Amino acid sequence: MTRRRVALSSYLGYDPIEKQFKVLAMTFPSRSDNGISEEHQVLTLGGTGSWRMVQCCIPHCPGWKVICISGVLYYQAKVTMSSSCSMIVCFDVRSEKFSFIKVTEAFTSVVHDTSTLINYKGKLGSITTPDYYCVSGKTGAFVLCVLDDPEKHEWSKHIYIFPPQWEHVFEQITLHIVGVTRNNEVILSRIYPSDPFYVFYFNLEKKTIRRVQIQGMGAFMGDVYTFVDHVEDLQVKHLT
Q1: pLDDT by residue (tens digit) across 134-179?
Q2: How far apart are CA 148 and CA 39, in angstroms?
Q3: Which residues contact 197 (CB under 8 A, 6 or more apart)?
Q4: Which residues are in the F-box associated beta-propeller type domain (predicted)?
């Protein structure tokens, strides 16, 4: 019996109609030059606990940028492991079917290494910064691309430039784009603790920015992870 080393990519998606969470997992040879996924499996959380095979007719190497919007998983993908990301693969969580979205040369920033996939008004969006994921008072600019029509593969591009007077707001610190809230505010945060520690909200519609201080971060050690629209259940459950 021969053994083969394989690598695994897995994504978590949610179907809002059936109210089900599903895991999409793809395997590919870890020592392969092309890195194209071979087996595609789906697991429904809370179901029978068994994986089932699904078919994908789009040979691709899955990337690690992923987001789930209205029951569809979107993730960047490559033709081969050695190539750059060149497409967006779509996985319908409910039907468990694959499709893909073309990215033309004018919108290559969507699949760039420095892009961040976001949910923009229920549509797939991508934010790209001049620096590597970073925004600061001196490089206060980013490009927002929005998928306006998935069937026609049509995108739109929007450029945002922070005014010079905002440089004092950032205080010469470097921020990373976390995502976009339901109120269309881009969240910017540091990845290292500081005192004081601020999280910034840039409103895409009003083009205004607000700063929120998070207390108690001065003594914290390690990286800081910021999440969008996180809700924690603080209900106290009494044991009997």
Answers
A1: 665 565 778 899 999 988 888 999 988 877 777 776 666 777 888 8
A2: 31
A3: 190, 213, 214, 215, 217, 218, 224
A4: 5-231
Q: Which phi and psi (to 5°) does residue 46 adopt?
A: 85, 5
Structure tokens given for 154: 């049509």
CA-nearest of 103, 74, 69 to 89 is: 74
Tokens (6 digits) for 38: 């071979």
The type of residue at 121 is: K
3-state secondary structure the chain: CCCCCEEEEEEEEEECCCCEEEEEEEEEECCCCCCCCCEEEEEECCCCCCCEEECCCCCCEEEEEEEEECCEEEEEEECCCCCCEEEEEEEECCCCEEEEEECCHHHHHHHCCCEEEEEECCEEEEEECCCCCEECCCCCEEEEEEEEECCCCEEEEEEEECCHHHHHHHCCCCEEEEEECCCCEEEEECCCCCCCEEEEEEECCCCEEEEEEECCCCCCCCCCCCCCCCCCCCCCCCCC
Q: Is the pLDDT of residue 4 over 60?
A: no
- Backbone φ, ψ for residue 193 (5° rounding): -70, 150
Distance CA 55, CA 87 (A): 18
- The whole-model pTM stands at 0.82
Q: Note the pLDDT tens digit of each residue in 11-23.
A: 999 999 999 999 9
